Every structure is written in structure tokens, then in C-alpha cells.
Amino acid sequence: MDEQLEFAGPLAGAGEANGEGWSLRDESRTPKLLVYEDFEPDGAVERQLGVGFGASAAGGSGLLVCGIRPGEWLLLLGERSGANPPAVGAVTVDLTHGVAMFRLSGPRARDVLASVCSIDTSEEMFPDGAVCGASVARVACTLVRDDVAGERSYLILSQRSSGRYLFDAVRDAGAR
Amino acid sequence: MSPLGSGPGSGPGQAPGSGSGTCLRRNDDRVVPMSPSRLPARPGEVIDRERPLTFTWNGGAVTGFAGDTIASALAASGCTVFSRSMKYHRPRGILTADFWDPNTLVQVGDEPNVRGGHRLLEAGMAVSAQNAWPSLRWDAKALTALGGRALSAGFYYKTFMRPRWLWPAYEKVLARFAPGGVIDPASAPRRHDKRYAHPDVVVAGGGPAGLAAAVAAAREGAGVLLVEHEHSLGGHLRWGTKSERSMAAALAGAAEAAGVEILTDATVAGRWEDNWLAVVERDGAGGPERLIKARAKVLVVAAGLIERPYVFAGNDRPGVMLSGGARRLLNLWSVRPGSRAVVWSANAAGDAAAADLEAAGVVVEHVDARTGRTVTAAEGRRGALERVVLSDGTRLEVDLLVTAAGWTAPTSLLNMAGVRPRYDPAAARFFPAEPGTAEAGTVLSTGGISGDGSLDELVGHGEATGRLAAARAATLAHRLRVATAWAAPVDGPEPPEVPDERTPLGRDPHPELYRSSTDGIVDLSEDVGSRDLRHAAAEGFDSVELVKRWTTATMGSAQGKLETVNTVAVLAEATGSTISEVGTTTWRPPFAPVTLGALAGRMFEPLRISSLHDLHVAAGMTPIQAGQWIRPEHYGDPAAEVCNVRANVGIIDVSPLGKLDIRGPDATDLLSLLYVNKWRRLAIGAVRYGVMCAEDGVILDDGVTGRLGEEHYLMSTTSSGSGAMEVWIQNWLQTEHPDWRVRVTPVTDAYTSINVAGPRSRVLLGRLVDDVDLGPEAFKYMQVRRGTVAGVAGCVMWRIGFTGELSYELHVPAGYGPHVWQALLAAGADLGVAPFGLEAQRIMRLEKGHFIVGQDTDALTKAPTAGLEWLIKLDKEDFCGRPELQWALEGEPGDAPDAVPRLVAVQPTDPSYVPPEVCQIVAATPDGKERIIGRITSSRFSPTLERSICLAQVEAVHAGPDTELTIVDITGRRHTATVMLHHAHFDPEGERLRA
Amino acid sequence: MVQVPRSNPRRRPRRGRYPARYSAAALLRRGKAPWPPIWRSTELRDTYDIVVVGGGVHGLATAYYLASNWGITNVAVLDKGYLGGGGSGRNTAIVRSNYLTPDGVAFYDRSVRLYERLAVDLNLNVMFSRRGHLTLAHSDGALRTMRWRAEVNKHQGVDSEVIGPAEIKRLVPALDVSEAPRHPILGALHHPPGGIIRHDAVVWGYARAAAALGVEMHQNTEVLDIDVAGGSGPDGKGPGGQVTGVRTSRGEVSAPVVVNCTAGWASLIAAMAGLRLPISTHPLQAAVTEPVKMFLPAVVVSGSLHVYVSQTDRGELVFGAAVDPLATYDTGGSLAFAEELAGHVLQLMPGLGRMRLLRQWSGLCDMTPDYSPIIGATDVAGFFCDVGWGTYGFKAAPVAGEQLAACIASGETPDLIEPFALNRFAEGRLVGEKGAAAVGH
Amino acid sequence: MLLVPCPHCGPRNTADLTLVGESESRPDPSATTPQEWRSYLYLEHNPAGWTRETWYCRLGCGRFFVTERHRGQNRFRHPPLGPADESAGPR
User: Fold this and answer.
1) D12 pairs with which residues across the strands?
2) Is B841 exposed, middle or buried (0-12, 13-18, 19+ CB in 10 A)?
3) Which chain D positions have a beta carbon within 8 Å of B738's beta carbon?
4) Pairwise CA distance, residues C169 & C161, whole Å
5) In this complex, is the C-beta atom of B42 within 8 Å of any C-beta atom belonging to chain A?
6) Fold category of C42-97+99-110+112-122+199-278+370-437 in CATH
7) Chain B closest CA to A164's CA: distance in Å?
8) Between chain C and chain A, are at least 3 CB pairs below 8 A?
9) Which of A59, A156, C34, D80 has the fewest CB atoms below 10 angstroms from its CB?
10) Residue of chain D whose alpha carbon sits nearest to that of A135
11) Min CA distance, C313 vs chain B (Å)?
12) Contact of chains C and B by CB distance (3 or more pairs under 8 angstroms)
């Protein structure tokens, strides 16, 4: 990502909204890399990245590896980290600009989510680190449970063009 | 004189033909005093006498207490008539004093059909009767004139046929008799929330058994959601004895303590596959209802029993009440329903009602139905009960008749799980039969629905059911976690399947009491009498479903809760069969009516915008919705935008254009499969136009694809087709060629796509690009380059020409889209650069004769129709739709090639006439008529050519160049037009775009 | 083609042959005395000239027109349940003819004309309420399709026109024609002849009239198999074969002609004759609200919002939607349907939030790839189909019955149904109504 | 709402997936006849019993897979048959 240029995120105004027991933040700037399994899958990529479909794992310097689909990983390179991703997989595609990413945090985050998403987010069914594809306010999203310092937190990723709508929908859900 | 019918507000009972409205109008300015029918404070009452609430009833002020329902407050004030019946407009009073009371539906403000027997009273409510009569008096006369005595069920099928022209008039009259309240389409919409829930166990019904089940399940560690229809827990215990009430309190407390999530004034409205439940939280204050979509592992149905009316002459007369109704009025709201009563009882509930009434000072004649004595008539005048006649001829002067004829098990939720109700004559009611579906093990029932017993037995059965539910939920939870990719790993083996070892509840013997020797009303909401049902059977409507449709019995607001079994019984009697043989009608969801507002919730309607959206708004775009996308249709003057592109240079935001990143050794094979044309020899750095067809040869999508590297392509699809194409391609890869080494990634949103078009586009771009040689020889038409634009690296540039001008399509990393857009405008100010919108682009593409998939083609348009023969390469052994395209090109027996439509460019003879799109093209037939031979698919006025131009689909025989066509205008006027040689109206040789 | 004996020349007078003639006078005369049976019930015989499978509105209409127009009365209509228990009693009873293709328009226009006379022809009031039919457009594409339909309709002499928001508001004040909604109402196809009808009454009317002419109705008589001889299939069924009869839950019946009028179950019946159809069965859900006083004067349809709504004379709103995407024979319905429906209705009429959904149900639709029916003879001699009616079968029943009767009796395929022959799929000549469905959603 | 047994995600709401259709093998496009090809395009088995179906996990794993569903009772045969087999062509 070029630091000289101003990166335009999916939102117009403030990239943040807060409510009783929850907060919503725009983290779309986060560099995102899509990594595919080797053409002749032998599980090497999964071994190297440490997680498979449905799970995520924190690597060094803010790197978060998410198994978003079988044989597909989304690498989130923490905002600060200049971490260079492990060079693995058959194909790597930079989705930094194509994917909006919001962080929904707080003790009530789960309730907010429950009014826009049908996924069971109980501790048993969606523990910290869990990754799944789901509809959030009717937008196809990737949902990642990524607690911060023990506080309940979710990453919600969608295609960039739906980002502003999605942010507003989740914020409104929290405002109830 | 008895308190009934005397109190103000009881007017509706007066002189036949006149009615509530009239009398109530008399009351308008009168504040109704508390009537003697409200008794002094009694233990167990749920009203707060410290909090009087004043509201209006048909305009007259009435006062009740907090805790009253609308019906109880009105009853307390002496009101006896709450509504008029649907067909005959007979006065109707309280029957059940609960949610199912068919006679106390009222209008509250702008809300129609409010359950007066259930809705809690609020100060200032404007309550009115819904079938108030005099306003319809004239119609009433009209109807009577038609023969009131012939007003049997289905009469309207038998008349009004002739004269045909008169029927609409009749219809209007009939429509005036539509029941129900008034909806104001202008009333303000309210916000209804929705949420999802995933409880282990949902218990439907908060009576003793349901409560016990919820507590037991929760104590076993299950997450339990308890849903109670009424305003508080306890079921029938609430209006029972002191000990029963304290039992209810104890159970409710236990549920609280066990951590059960409790919803009162809520209903499990429906149950679908895998225990997908609709739970509706009614807002007691009439506020927005809330829908909870719950995926329960186990559903426990403990809906209790609904008391059944008895059918006899005058059974719908005010003053005739069910035992439950009388006891609720008396014990919950301290309203004395009468002063002299006959209590006709076939069961303990009825006996208890007799005792309660006597204790409240009512003179009671207790008639035991178990001895065979039945009620044959309830007689009286002016909408009041005066006399009850018994089967032995006894005549009793009373103002209240309480019947306790038996029960109906509301098995709806069980039926929705495939469990069928089965009739037991000895107990005189239906019971759930054996589980009907594989998953029925996750749907359990307890309480009155399953059987009878002492309070302890009911609670015991409830507890056993709760434990069973918790155990089965645990097993399911385990399986779910094992199966779900992202769930926490499970520790330990799967909990064993727990067999159902509950001791079944008993069944108390009960006499079968449905209809007396006289005829009465069976369905009070629909005004259907037992005579109607018997006549319907005689007319051949001998199955319950047929009789239901002919008479509309069970189709009213109570949806059969009160009347289904009586309907079945009367039909059985009429057809000389048994109730079991007749069976029951299907209980359909919802269990209780749900507002449209709650079902709708907040509708989510996703929108998509490009990174340039705010710039377009600032530039004063006129937006247009294209699918989910909001796009600039134009910025003020589309024609000027066209001229500017043709003369100078314009830029358009084409970000919604579908874009797919395709990589891997087999990428070329994939393209060859998807497109009808060839891709093998596409050089690196070149782009090519391609068309995709479905397996039936119909055009699916088109676009250009550029080769960025040996094994790397960037494919573009139409904006509207992008989503579908992603799936289409994945489908081929995963199901037909999973072995292919290629990865396809949607990157539509990763790039902001900007088309720079016009003779000066090269100059403009030159000012922002220095790492790519834009020279006409270095960067030819239909080539692709990668480079840096305005300091933004990693841009993809296509030299293509949808507009027909020299133009470059820039794909810029979306985060920097606004930067590049503004840089282009700034750098090109002296060149006259200006943004242009979709409309200008549509005009220019039409000038060039480019078709739009879905507009110039339709769901039957095969590639040749669009003039794409040159593109289709049959020497490829496989590609999507190959066989159909081969037959379309080479023809097959039975073909009528002349009839196949062709897409052609057309110019009206009158250059100023722009035919509306889709207006029809006709040709004369031998018999002198006209036949439709095609249609205009696109039309615009071309500012460049200063004439109207079109694309059209016409039958091949009429598609030859210079053919004269006849266009039929919307007004029916005829216009001539000529078929052109090329699709392109402008610069057919394409010199400009190759410049 | 099998020659079916006719008891006597076509169009014999029917009047007076009814068990009991209906009229206001008769009602008054009879007072509260019961009426005689609407149709007589007889024993199932072991042979008929024609067996119609399916006692819905299509089967009954076919039987009625066979008898009334062609004098063919030795006909049995068999139903596994009760008459009109399938789609006939579960549809939203909308009648219209504003289709897209000339073929479609001509066909449905004939149907509407028959419906207008039906009450008199059958001497039973089917309560045809000609209140006008509005198809709303929420996008330029949809508007284009509306115009397309209007153009074709006009050319075919059918009354349809595209109207703007102001006129829409005038016709149906409850509609929100502002720009505010996500799917604003840009215009509508107004079709004055369209309306609603009492669907059950149509079933009973045909049954009663057919019975009066000697046709037999047998309820609770399920067809378990069809006997076919000389077919190309291993079991002697299929193309090239000749129908000889049916096996039912109440015994075997021999008949040279068997007519498949079973809508959602069409594939199962056709399979009994050894034929595979281009049909998949999808539920179509409908719902009704509690009654309120009349406020919705016209039938309102929104294609892009997948909803149609009308208010019955009883004051209920009757809703329909698009078929469920999931192919199944299960009629349990879904919550999603009710949610979508309510949401879309409130987008059109935001003031209806306090109306209550009273009941929802499903019927089974036999969907074809080109949204058009399959009527006429098949490759199995004596086996006729009147299927593939998808979501538009009820409105077509009279014309389908009339034309199919002609097809069976005369052995020639009438022009009106020629485009809807089964072999169009093998020949790749699909009907253009699919264009309507696919263009400009 | 029916739970669809996605072999990758686990049970999911029907609304999260798309029923592609009956699993039908695609004739060799270079050798097929109109009869055969159009049967493949248009004809359905459409039984009221068990059917092999191709499903697409639209909102979940994005994978196509084949499973068996009873179209009469609208329930799935567990476990699913796994990833889409190669015979099932797009329609």
C-alpha cells in the first residue's frame, strides 16, 4: 500500500460508531491477501499457515491467517505491521482494495450481530478464532471471531462496494 | 333488573334493527360510572385498583384499572355487547374473555381487529366496535330484501348470476358487509426489530406442565426459552384456587431462578423443518411486535387446552359464556358476569365455575351434563339473555349461562411437525398421535395436549419431558459441533440417545357433547350454524375440507381453535360417520395472527456504490439504480456529454463492470470452454472480445478479456451479469473440471474502473502515465498494459472502444480511485475533459450498434440471432452451448430459418421520430391482417448523427439490408423504418477507435 | 387417435337438466330447506371412454367441455383427495390475459372471455370480480417489459396500457408512489379486464355442470399406475405405446384415453405412462390476512418484489408470491415466505403494518423451462397432458379445458394450443414467455 | 427452514445455499444428438422420493456438492455424498 497517496475507504464520514456495550470500527485499510492451495493439494499450505477452513490463527506482527474457504486463506496484515506474508500457495491475490473490513467489539456485540446474522455465535458454536461465511444484513460476508484482550470482537468482511451499506446496517442494529 | 343490559354502554343490545352505534352515540358525552358488576377487591385479582385508566368506547369515556383487558374493563362498566356478528349482525358478548374470544375483536385507534379479550387496557385508548350497525342500515335492508331467511351458507353462489351486468352492483353491496376493522393506509409505519436465537429447548406454553418442563430442562444445563401466550405464567392456575395460584407463583419463581429466558404475551407462531420456529413477542402496549427466528434443538409443546363451546339455539347470545370465560372475568378482574346463572357442566372446570360464581354471590343453578341433561335454547330479547331451556323442558329465568362442554387440544405446532391428531371418543377430544416424522423425536408434548391428571401428575410429566428434552438437545448439540467447521472442538463421546420413558398422562373420561337437539352457531367468527353444515353435507360437501370451503367454517379469526371440532362433530352427525372418520382440518401457521410489521421487520436492501460515489454526488449526478448499484445516469445533459466525448474527451465510472482475475496453467482452457470464440493464440498484452452462451445456446454474457501474463488473465463481464458469471464459472470448474489448474478470483471491487474516451484521451492519459508508451503503435487498439497512473502503481489499462472513440479503460486499485479520477479532471481541464454518465454511454454504444445482453437479447436469443456467426468457432471440440449453436448454424430438420429472429440496426424514415423501445414491428399477412414480426429493442436520438437510431429484433426474412419495416406506435400510428447494412450507425469501419 | 363414441351431437340444450336450478327466486322458494346434492355420487365402473386424472379445475373443465361441446359423457374424473383440493383451491384466483407473446395473449384472452360468461354457463355464481389488474414496475428494465406487454396486448386487441405513478395513485390510493422506497414505483401495466374470482366456486360449478351431463366424479380414488401397451420402454410403456387403462386405489379401470391434469404431480402420473416431462415441482405459497373494510380496489402485482395482492369481498387481503426456489412436494410452507411477503407488501403499502397475517398455505406448481404449459397429445397414444401450468394454471382452466376437449374429441390440435405441444422441447422451440420472465427483472 | 448438510461447513440454513438441480451427466458435446442433449437440458426426473441433487453453498464455503434429498418429505440423507461429482454438468 502506497503511503504517499490517500487511501479512500468505503465510508464517507467517521469510520467509527459506538453504542451501549458495542463499538464498530472501519479497518478496511488493513492489507489483505488471498492465498490458494497448491494445484496438487498435499496439505503443505495448511501446515505452513497453521489453520484450515473455519479457523484463524495469529501469526507474528499482527498477521491474522483466516481459513475462509476450503483451500483458501485470507491473510490480514495488521494495520501497523509491514509483515510480509509467507510466500505459499499456488496463487496469491491482493484484495486490500476490494474488501471492506469492520470490527464489531464489546459485551453487546453478540446481540447486535444476532439481529442481522443467523449464525449461532454461542461460545461452543463460534469460539474465538472461528471463521465462517454468512449473510450479514443480507450482504455476503466473512465473519471472524477475533477477541481483543479478552473482549468479544468480530471482524466483518464484505465486498468493498457494499461496505457503506453494511456499516450503516450494523450500526442501526446496535442503535435499537 | 339485572346489571346485564342495564348499564350505560350496554345499548348495543337494544331494539333489533337499531343497535350499538345508535345507542352508543347516545352515550357519547356521558362518562360511564363504574358498574355494580365490578366486585370489591378479591384475592388473586390482577387489576391494580390504585391505577384507574380512562379510555373511550365508541366515543364514550369509560374507566377501568391497570391489569384490565379491554374486554374486562368494558364488562366491568356494564357493557354486554361488544360486536355484531359477521353475516346476520347479531349482538355478541363475551364468550371466553381471552385471546380466542371471537366476539370481542375491536378497533383501537388505527389498529383493527384487536383482541379485546387479551389486549391490556391503556389510558386514552380509543376503542370502538367494528361491526357497528346503523352505518350499514340501508345495506342491511337491501340484504334482508334479498331474502334474509334464505341467507344460508353459500347462498351467494346460487344467485346474482343474471343479469350479468348487474353482478358488479350486487358485489359492491356484499363487499359492504366485509367484517373486521378499518385500516388506514396512511398510518405511520413503525420499526419492528427481529433477531435470531439458537436455544437448546423452546417450551411453548407457561402452564404448570410447561413451566415444570422448562425448569427441569434448565436444571439439566440446557438453554431454555419459555414462551407464554398470556400476560403472565401459570396457565389455568392463574384463575384457580389459592393453592393453585401459589403453585403457579412457585413454578414461575423456579423458572426465573433456573435461568430460563421467559417471554410472556408471546407466541410460538409456527414450526418448520429442523425446529425452525417463529416466536412472536406481542407488545402488550400495542407497540411494535417482534419476531424471533429460533433454531431450537428440541421443541416442547405445552399449549394446554382450549375450552369448546356447545352448539344449541341461541348459543351466541350475550350472556352465554364458557366456564373459563366466567372464571377469568370473576377471578382475574373481579367482574361478576351475571346475577342469576345456569352453570351447565360436564367437567371439573365447570363445577369450579359454579362454585366460584356462588361464592361471588351469584344465584347459581348447577346442571350436571354428565347426567344427560343438555341445554336446548338460550332465549331473550334485546341482545340479553333472559331464559335457558333444558332438554327436559325446564325453563330457567337467568341472565348468565355458563357451559363446560369439553376441550380442544391446540395441536397446531405438533401438526406442523408431522404429528397428526387422533380422536378419542372416551375422552371426547383429539390427542397427538404417534410421531409422524423422523425428526419428531425433537418435538415433545406435555400437559393438557397429551393427557389429563392431577396437578402433581401434570407437573411430574412436565419435568420428565423437560429432562428428556435437555438430554436430546445435548446429543444434537454434540453432533452439531462435530459437524460444524468453525465450532469449538468437542470433548468426550456423543451423549447416548435417550429413550422416551415418560409415564404417559391418563385420559379422563368425558361425555361427547357437541350439538344439542337444536341448531346453533358453530363458528361464531364466520356466523356459520350447524344447520348450514348439515345442509352443506346434504348438498354433497361431505368432507371436512369441502364443507369448510363451502360454508367458510373455521376460516375466521379464531382459525378453528374454538370451532373445528364442533364442525367435525356436526359433519360426522350429518354424514352418519364418526368423528374419527371425518378427521380434522389442517391447522396452518401461524398459531396466532401476526402483524405484517413484525414479519417484515426492518427490510435489508443492500446497495453498492463505487469509490467515486461521493465525487459523483458532488458533481451533481442524476443517480439511477442498476441492480444493487447506484450509478450516475448523467450529470445534467447526456447529449452534451456525448458530444464532448466525440469532440474532446470524457471519463465515465464503470466500476460495476464485472472483473475476474484468472490464473494458472489451464487458464486458457477455461476461457476456451466459457467463450464461443477462440483464445489459444491470444498474445500476452492483448485483449479480445468474447461472448458466453448457456448450454441451450442462449447468450449469457459478453465482455473483453485481456492476457496479462503467460498464465494470467483479467476477464470482464457485464455489470448486471457479474455475480451470476462468478457462480457459472465456479460451477464449471468444480463440477466438470475439478482437475484444472486454474484459480478464478472476483476482483470487481478491487478496482475502480474508469473509461477515458474521446479523441483527446491519449493526450490526457499521457499527462498522467509515464511508465507505459501510449503511442498508437506501441499501445494498439485491443491491447492491455500495466502501469502507473497519477502515481498509482498496479493499474491495468485496456485500449478498447465501447463508445467507438479512441478510449482507455483504467482499472485502478479502488482505494486510490478518487485520486485518479480527480487527477484526470485536473490534468484534462484544458482538453475539455468532463465526466459522462450511463445514458451518454448507452447512446454512444447504440451509435456503434453494440447490443446489451438482456435488452437487445432475451432469454431465447441464441448467438446467431445477434449476428455472431463469425465469432462461434465450431472447430473447438467443446464449449458451453456448442451443440445448440452448431445446430443453429447448420440447421436441423424441422427448422424454419426465416422465422428465427435477427438483431439488426434500424433507422426510422423520419429522422426526428424515436420509436419507443419494445414497440412492435408488424407485417401484412395474406389475409390482410397484420402479424408481429419483431420489436425495437433499443432506440435513441443520436446527437452525433442528428437522427433517430435503433436496434431491433425481426424475423430473418425481414432482416435483409434496406428492408422497409412498419413500426406500430404506442398510439397505434404506423411509422416506416429501414434495416441498415451494419449494426453500427456511426463509423462502421471503426477508424476512430483504432486512431 | 382413438375414436371416442359420442352419445349425441354437440351443444345439446343443458337448461333444465340440472338437479336443481339456482336463482334468487329458487333461494326464496326453498328458504331454509336443504338443497339436493350438487353432484351425484356413483360407484366406480370398470370401463370408461375417457379417464381424467385430477379433479381440479383443469380436469373438471376438460370433462365438462367434453360433455357439453362434444357430447362425450362416458367420462370419469378421478382424484386422490377431494375435488379442488390441489392448486385449484390454493391459488390466489387472479384472472388476466396481459401476457407477452401473441400466442399467450390470444390463449389467455379466450380464457378471460369464458370466465366472464362462466356464472351463466354453469348456473353457479363464480363471483368474477373484474376490478382491474396492476403490474408495477420498479426499474427501467421492468418498465420496458410492461411496455412490451402493452404493445403486444394492444395489437391482439387486449386492453392493457402503461400508466404513471399519478394514475396508479388514483386507482390505488394505498400505494406509496413516492421516490422514497428502495424500489420506487415507476409505472405499471394496467389491465382493466383482470380481476379475481371465487376459485372453489369455479371447481364446484364445473363439477356440478359436468355431473349434470353424466360425467362421473370419483374422489379419494388415487391412480396408482397406468396401463400402456406396445411402448418402446422395457415395460412396454413410453413412446409408441397405447394407453389401455388405469389402476386405482379402488380397482382397475380400462379406458383408451387417459388425461393427465395433475399439476404438481404431473411428473409422477406421466412416469406411470413411461414419459419424462420437462417439469420440476415447486411449492407456491399464499397467505391471507384478517379482514378489514375494503380499501384495495384493484389487483396489485409487483414482479420484482415477487408479490401479488388483492382484497376479497370478505375484506381479507390475499397474497401470493413467486414459487419457492426449492423443488419439493412438501407443502409445509416457510417462514421466510411470510417475512419476504410482508416486507414487500409494506414497501408497496407502508401503512399496512398493523394488519395481521391469519393463515398461510402452499400449493404445488409444475414449472416448465419456458414458463408455458404443456397441452395436448403425447408420444403415448391416448395419453394426453394438460400440465406445466406453473403459477398461471387457474386463470387458464376454461380455455385449456375447452381446447383440450376439442383436441381429444376431434383428434386435431387446435391452433390456440399448438404452441404448447410437448415436443417443442425436443425440437428446441421454447415459448417466448420466458423472454418476459427474463427481460428486465 | 431446512438445514442443508454442507460437507464443508456443516448444517446450514437453506437460504444460505442454492439448489442447482438434479445431478445429470453431461453428454459429449461433440457427439450428442438433439434428442439426447435436450433431454439433458430440459427433462427432469422430479420424483416425490429420493433424488441426487447438486447444491451450491453460496454464502458459506462457495463449494458445489452432491447430496440426496427426499423431495416428498423434504429431508436429506445423511451424510452427504461429498463434493460434486464430475458427471454433474451445469444447466
Assistant:
1) D4
2) buried
3) 83-84, 86
4) 15
5) no
6) FAD/NAD(P)-binding domain (3.50.50)
7) 8
8) no
9) C34
10) D59
11) 5
12) yes
Q: Collect all residues of chain C within an 8 Å Cβ-Cβ radius of residue B155.
A: 27
Nearest CA in chain A to B738: A39
Which ipTM value was assigned to this complex? 0.94
Cβ contact, residue pair B814, A160, below 8 Å: yes
Q: Give start and end residues of each alpha helix (H) in B625-721.
A: 638-647, 667-674
**Residue B155 carries which side chain, given as an amino acid letter?**
F
C130-193+280-367, which class in CATH? alpha beta
Cβ within 8 Å of residue C50, ≥6 positions away: C4, C63, C66, C72, C74, C75, C76, C255, C256, C257, C258, C259, C408
Asked whether the beta carbons of residue D58 and residue A140 sit closer than 8 angstroms, the reply is yes
Domains and CATH numbers, chain D: 3-88 (3.30.2270.10)
Neighbours of B502 (CB within 10 A): 17
Chain D residue numbers with beta carbons less than 8 Å from the beta carbon of C330 are 71-74
In chain D, residues with a C-beta closer than 8 Å to the C-beta of C336 are 1, 15
Question: Cα(A39)–Cα(A46) distance, rounded to whole angstroms?
Answer: 13
Count the residues in chain A.
Answer: 176
Q: Terminus-to-terminus CA distance in chain A, angstroms?
A: 37
- Which one of D2, D38, D47 has the shortest CB-CB distance to C426? D38
Per the CB < 8 Å rule, is C345 touching B596?
Answer: yes
DSSP B960: S
Where are chain C's structural domains? 42-97+99-110+112-122+199-278+370-437, 130-193+280-367
pTM: 0.93
- In this complex, is the C-beta atom of C291 within 8 Å of any C-beta atom belonging to chain B? yes
Smallest CA–CA distance from C355 into chain B, residue: B595
Find the CB nearest D19 among C327, C330, C425: C327
Q: Per residue of chain C (441 residues), what is the pLDDT tens digit?
A: 455 666 554 444 444 445 678 887 887 777 777 788 888 888 999 999 999 999 999 999 999 999 999 999 999 999 999 999 999 988 888 888 888 888 888 899 999 899 989 988 998 888 888 899 999 999 988 898 899 899 989 888 899 999 999 999 999 999 999 988 889 999 999 999 999 899 999 999 999 999 999 999 999 999 999 999 999 998 999 999 999 999 999 999 999 999 999 999 999 999 999 999 999 999 999 999 999 999 999 999 998 888 999 999 889 999 998 899 999 999 989 999 999 999 999 999 999 999 999 999 999 999 999 999 999 999 999 999 999 999 889 999 999 999 999 999 999 999 999 999 999 999 988 887 765 543 322
From the list A53, A54, A135, the residue facing D59 with the nearest CB is A135
Give the closest-approach CA distance of A72 to chain B in angstroms. 10
Residues ≥6 apart with Cβ < 8 Å to B676: B690, B691, B692, B693, B863, B868, B871, B872, B873, B879, B880, B881, B885
Closest by Cβ to B735, choosing from D8, D9, D84:
D84
Euclidean distance between the first and the last CA atom of chain D, given in angstroms as a whole number: 26
On whether any CB of chain D is under 8 Å from the CB of B745, the answer is no
| Amino acid sitting at position C372 | S
